[in-house]
Amino acid sequence: VVAAAAVAALLVNAGLLTSKVRPYAAVFSRGVHECFYGTGEWLRDNTPPDAVIAALDIGALGFASERRILDLAGLVSPDARAMGLEMGFERMVESGRWLELDEPGYFFDRTKGPPRWTGRTVEGVTFELLDTCGIDGVGLQEAGMWTYALYRLVRVRPSP
Questions:
Q1: Closest by alpha carbon to 136, among 121, 124, 153, 148?
Q2: How many domains does one find in the chain?
Q3: How many CB atoms lie within 10 A of CB 14?
Q4: Please, which residues bridge with residue 132 across strands?
Q5: Three-class SS state of 36
Q6: Which residues contact 58 (CB under 8 A, 6 or more apart)?
Q7: Higher confidence at residue 124 or residue 10?
Q8: Is residue 37 one of the residues assigned to a domain?
Q9: Which pLDDT belongs to residue 14?
Q10: Per DSSP, what are the bridge partners of residue 71?
Q11: Could you tell me the strand order of the sheet in which 121-122 lies?
Q12: Which is it for strands 106-111 and 52-55: parallel, antiparallel or unpaired?
């Protein structure tokens, strides 16, 4: 009975791996390479070496860009982590309060719809849309198409 249950469990796991995990992993891996890594390469080739990029998803982007990253998820940016824990990470990003933490020249955002920062000015910074890409699912719990948008952050000088 125990052996039969173990075999049944292995077969169910193999079925899930084949039907759910492998297809997702293939699509997501392709999206990471095309979207995150591709954007990182563009940043490496088109920005100064001291450029700072604010982003929620930092791995492939940071690796390919070879630029300093302000991690808005707070994993490697302690000030962003503290602010995100205080006010909530999604609220911190949506409000633009993260602009107080550093002076990034670029922002790589993700959203479920069209780019949300195009033309907005927050804290004296205007968001200039440079490019977009999409990934179908950014995690097993976040299914569906996600839009990633790269913005140049332009500091607006106050009028005299």
A1: 148
A2: 1
A3: 10
A4: 149
A5: helix
A6: 69, 71, 73, 75, 76
A7: 124
A8: yes
A9: 65
A10: 55
A11: 68-71, 52-55, 106-111, 145-155, 125-136, 121-122
A12: parallel
Q: Lowest mean pLDDT: which of 10-19, 41-50, 111-120, 123-132?
A: 10-19
pLDDT band (50, 70, 90) for residue 49 = very high
Whether pLDDT at 25 is above 70: no
- What residues make up the domain containing 70? 25-155
Q: How confident is the model at residue 24 (pLDDT cuts 50, 70, 90)?
A: very low
Within-domain flag for 47: yes
Rounded Cα distance between 87 and 72, Å, is 13
Of the two residues 110 and 7, the one the predictor is more confident about is: 110
CB atoms within 10 A of CB 43: 23
Domain for residue 80, yes or no? yes
Q: Can you read off the two tokens belonging to residue 51?
A: 């450029």
Taking CA atoms, 151 is separated from 18, 29, 117, in Å, by 38, 23, 8
Given a contact cutoff of 8 angstroms between Cβ atoms, the answer to whether 29 and 80 are in contact is no
Asked if the structure places residue 1 within a domain, the reply is no
